[in-house]
Structure formats: C-alpha cells, structure tokens
Input
Amino acid sequence: MFDLVIIGAGPAGITASIYAARKKMEFLVIAKDIGGQAAWSGEIENYTGYQFITGPELAAKFEEHIRKYGIQVKENERVVELKRKDEGVWIKTDKGVYEAKTAVIASGKRSKELGVPGELEFKNRGLTYCATCDAPLFADKDVAVIGGGNSALDAALQLIQIAKHIYLIDIAPELSGDVVMREKVSQSRKVDVLNNTRVTTILGDKMVSGIRIRRGDKEETLAVEGVFVEIGLIPNSEFAKEVEKNERGEIKVNAYNETNIPGIFAAGDVTDVPEKQIIVAAGEGAKATLSAFRYLAKRR
Amino acid sequence: MAGKKVIIYTTPTCPFCMMAKRFLKDNDIDFEDFDVSTDRTKAQEMIRKSGQMAVPVLDIEGEIIVGFDRERIVKVLGL
Output
C-alpha cells in the first residue's frame, strides 16, 4: 500500500509529487498528461523565476524536475472512482485499482462541453475545444465560436486573422468578456454576434457541415465547417463522490488542504481556493503533500 | 539500425505539438515537420490520412497517431 497517491500532474500535482519525493514517501502519480492546463497557456510572465516562459516550456521544466527525482507518472490514466476504505483511500482507474493511506486530488479543470447531439461524434472533426491549436486549419472557412466570455472572444480574435466568417454564439443577452476584446470583436466585419442564442445540434457527415441554433422560439441552421466550443471550465471532481464540493463542483478545502474526509487532501484548480493561477496551484500542491505527511506521522 | 521515417503535422501555437517534437528530439528521432497553418496541401494531406482535423498528427511509416500519445509513439518506434 502506498503512503500517498497524487491525482493529476499539473502545477499542483507536480509540486505535490516533488515534496512527496523529498519526504521519501512511498507514492504514485496518476495523470491524464503532464503539465495540465498550464501546458495550454500561451505566454506566462507571472511565474516567479521566469520573466517569460510559454506553457509548453514550463510543462517541460516540470517534467524535467520530476524526472530528476525519478518520479514515475502513470500517464494517460483516468481515475473513475475514489473513496475512503477502512483507514485509507481506494482508487479505481480505467487501468487498475490502487490503495493508499492518503490521497492528494490535484486533477484540475477541463473544458466544459455543450451536451448537444453531434458534439461527441464531431469532436476533432471540425469541433474543437482548443482554438489555439486548431484554428489555423480553418483558413478561409465559415466557423462558429460558442461562448461569450474571454476565452470565446480570444478564439474569435484569433479566427479573424484566419477564417472567412465567424458567428459568435452566446447564450447570454450580452457578451461578458473584457471590454477591449469585446470592442475588437464587434468592430470586425468578419464577426456576427448572436446573443440569446443556443446551439441545439452539431450537423455533418464525416466532418462538421453546420449547426442548428435556437433564438427564442426560432430555430435555424448555419452552414459552418468549424465549431469552437469556449464555454468555460469545470472541475475534474466527479470521481470523488463522497468528497464535499461547492455549487461549482469544486472540492472544498481548508487552509491545510483537508477535505471533509480524513486522509483525502486536494489542491489547485479542482478546489474552491480563490485565484486559479499556476503559482497558486503549485503552492497549494506543496501544502497538500505536507499536510498528508503530517497526517501520516500523527497516526504512526 | 535504420530509423523509421517520421512525419509530424503541427501548428506553431499548439502545446502538444511542441511537446511531441521535444519528445522526438530528446529521443534522437529525426522527423519531418509540416506546419499545416501555412501549408494548405499538407493540411489536406493530414486530414485525409487521419480522418480528423486536430493537431498534432504523426505518420510513422503509415501508422497514424493523433495527438501526443507518448505510449503509442514509444511502441511504434520501439524506444
């Protein structure tokens, strides 16, 4: 049985694992990928020690750091259930079952899905959650961006340089992102902003060919070849059913990163800690491992 | 041992493209990199080969890998 299982390898999980290695704990890291959301960041200018670094570069630095300690990460592995069992923690993934005395949940957040027919089917076939990655593939095409916040505006601004025409489809009566970005988007002749509008279906054959939208009681079809879903993030916390969460699904923690269940700690963007920042998540990861370490020391 | 021919389709801004290229370099794998944000022909080729539109795509002598799937790259290249 492990002393500790760390779930996630973003800034919180990586830092948690470095502290665990230095405390010589018997531990395991389970993660979808290394770097987490930090890897998706463009330019980072507020992580102490780096005046400028890109997301992928910082993720590579993180990886270098854990390799130095010989930390093994179970990559590409997804936790499906985590619960208290006897005095420890029981964790089921899509590849196996693990038991540990403690756990640090640092599983971060992921892009929210629309939850409409066609979304799964056309994912990566015209529908994408990463405008930064895939926008260049839609040169001179008609596309739709779904959302009204900063990430949607950012996607629209990137696409203005690339696509032929952009429909910005927002469920709210008004766009909600930064004023500067809103102005830039509304000044572009390439963008049509459709407020009070929801997407009901993604259409296509092999690739996306259009979307069905509804505004009030009027429904219509827009012919687009690209759909960029930018409607925010949700915490990866569903697998921890017994752990207490807030109304947004974020795991509630106290100043010591303790959850409502003894032996289960949480850190980073998956928690209700204010300020979703790389440096905050990293600090929280350190705290969580140190709390788990003290918890084990007391029980010995 | 002759190395397998590795082609990678990328865009300059995609994090997993950068990670995939770094991984190949770290393992001393030679590869040909096509920037599909500027090369339309190669973009079409990538879509045809992979049946989808996300980057990165790796073509290792006909074996198509979508995304930075470290496990599969290791397996296909026999690292």
The longest helix of chain A spans residues 278-299. The CA atoms of residues 33 and 91 of chain A lie 18 Å apart. The mean pLDDT of chain A is 94.
